[in-house]
Amino acid sequence: MRKFFKIAAILACVVSFSPAQAAEKLNGAGASFPYPVYSAWAFDYHKATGVQLNYQSIGSGGGIRQITERTVDFGASDAPLTPDALAKAKLLQFPAVIGGVVPVVNIAGVKPGEMRLDAEASAKIFLGEIKYWDDGKIRALNPKLKLAHTEITVVHRSDGSGTTAVFTEYLNAVSPDWKAKVGSGTAVKWPVGIGGKGNEGVANYVQRTANSIGYVEFAYAEQNKLTYTLLKNAAGTYVTPSFAAFEDAADTGTFDPKNHFYLWLVNAPGKDSWPIAGATFILLAQEKMDANRKVVKFYDWAFKNGDAKAKELVYVPLPKSLKDKIRAYWKANGAQ
Amino acid sequence: MAVTVKRNPGDIIFFSLTAVASCTIIVFIVGIVFVLLTESSLAIQKFGVIQFLTSTEWDPVKETFGALTSIYGTIVTTALSLLIAIPVALGIAIFITEVAPNFLRAPIGIAIELLAAIPSIIYGMWGLFTLSPLMGNTVEPFLKKATASIPLVSVLFQGTPMGIDVLTASVILSIMIIPFTASIARDAFNLTPAVVKESAYALGTTKWEVVKNIVIPYSKLGVFGGILFSLGRALGETMAVAFVLGNNHRIFTSLFDSAATITVTLANEFTEADKDIYLSSLFYLALVLFVMSFVFLAIAKFFLLRAERRYSR
To answer: CB within 8 A of A171, min separation 6: which ones?
Structure first.
């Protein structure tokens, strides 16, 4: 019996160690928003190169903490870290993929893309200052729609999220009133409304609450066929949320490698830009050259081969100009 | 009293193994308290104890945090769920122990234990997709209409019924704790000596009289302890209510308002808490909950022990 245990123990050691030596493994952790696309890329990358990438979607806050403590090879965050914060934690940062946030409504008789909103109206609705759908401001933007005197129900996220960060960053950028009263962040003190947990929670509440308005990631609006609105962008055009509109925003947004690409992609100046978008970011430890090279190799591969997969999952791939900037940034920091 | 045992190696190994196993529990508790204290020290320093416990401000943007809204939400939802659950649970327990014919007792008992075994996330999903629309569309408008003319009560049912509110959360919580309360109450009722019950029946008392005058007085403390255990469970329940409470930090008066409890706040905000003081305040909230649960469970244990002592005499 004892002999049997000894043999079993030795076998167990051998079995558990051998694959660790054979396969290369990368560990990342962070934002949950890009998790589907990262894992899809990781799956294809593993097939193509044999390198395993293990990404845990524990949330942006956790991703930042883990890379700061150097327990993972890379972290991921929906919110960009400021150059100061990056310098303090000795981190590098680059965007990986872009997502958009879309206001969605549920009003009887209003179809997707029919309701037009501008920055002022959006901010006032979410501040609770516009209370009814037949408010003069909304009627002026939508002369063709028949809007009844019904109370607006605002639906926001109850959990902290990158989606909320992007959306409130947009309201911050367009409304001084919002900036003074509420501000921006992954979770804020909402003046009005009810909270749904996750994109699915908000989508669910908007779908079943008449006369409601909420905000979800573009993918959720697409997949659940929600009634998205048009938004007036900084150039004054009413834009439909679409891949083209997000790409335009990414193209005209001024990502600057000198600031480690710190940018909230809101209110982009382009003529056809969707105003509420956000890149999601990868964080690297400055001194871990070896690991960085491997992580960068993965993202370089994904930039080359992963665009179709990203689109399939309703993420917006980075425009070519931005990819080139990122490659130059990698070279400059010795990661490629 | 001490008995000297002849020490053989097997005994020593056995003793140390079981002793180590028991000590891990204490190590875990001390470890948890230690982690909660160190992680929340930043928030404790900044907000103090009194200010944190009495402030209703929870604003991650301005980085001011107070626990009162969460504590208030926790206490109200827990109290409300107990209010719903206790009568039902006692009814179940009385039915199984005294009223039901023998062939029904086992199936109902098993059904209750199964209900207790359902993971709480399933209650949460069911609450979000099934119960919440039902409450918002049918039950709550009815309650609102029914109470509209009653002066003080109508305050509790003000606002637009959405189904994402204190009432829905309390109903889900009550469904979760009913099996818990019922099975402890059943065990307590079963402690009533059969001889006493049979004597009462022999004197010609009815079932109702036996339950009222014999069973309940005998098992009072046990049932009370069971209720406190359920209270502890309701206090700490997270996933079942995280979806339907809305995580809204304010002091509410209407049961149709969305609110926040400590656990709901933690579940919703922990992953994306990006600032040190924010994270530390969440740990501080967890510490508050830990102390609350500890106190309630200690009281529960005290009553159960007293009950046991009384019967063993």
So the answer is: A119, A122, A123, A126, A178, A179, A182, A184
Distance from CA of B303 to the nearest CA of A (A): 38
pLDDT one-digit tens code per residue, B168-215 = 999 999 998 998 889 888 888 888 888 888 898 899 888 889 888 888
Instruction: Report chain B residues whose CB lies below 8 A from the CB of A106.
Output: none
Q: Is A182 in Cβ contact with B272 (below 8 Å)?
A: no
B contact test, residue of A58, A77, A186, A200 with most B CBs within 10 A: A186
Q: Where are the beta strands (DSSP E) in B137-267?
A: none
Chain A residues closer than 8 Å to B58 by CB:
189
Q: A64: closest CA among A162, A170, A177, A147? A: A162
Model pLDDT, residue B146: 86
Helix (H, G, I), strand (E, B) or coil at B209: helix
Please list every residue in chain B whose beta carbon sits closer than 8 Å to the beta carbon of residue A195: 164, 246-248, 258, 268
Q: Which chain B residues are within 8 Å of A77, Cβ to Cβ?
A: 274
SS3 string, chain A, reads CHHHHHHHHHHHHHHHHHHHHHCCEEEEEECCCCHHHHHHHHHHHHHHHCCEEEEECCCHHHHHHHHHCCCCCEEEECCCCCHHHHHHHCEEEEEEEEEEEEEEEECCCCCCCCCEECHHHHHHHHHCCCCECCCHHHHHHCCCCCCCCCECEEEEECCCCHHHHHHHHHHHHHCHHHHHHCCCCCCCCCCCCEEECHHHHHHHHHHHCCCEEEEEEHHHHHHCCCEECEEECCCCCEECCCHHHHHHHHHHCCCCHHHCCCCCCECCCCCCCCCEEEEEEEEEECCCHHHHHHHHHHHHHHHHHCHHHHHHCCCECCCHHHHHHHHHHHHHCCCC
Inter-chain residue contact B272 with A153, CB threshold 8 Å: no
Domains assigned to chain B = 69-311 (1.10.3720.10)
Tell me what the pLDDT averaged over chain B comes to: 87
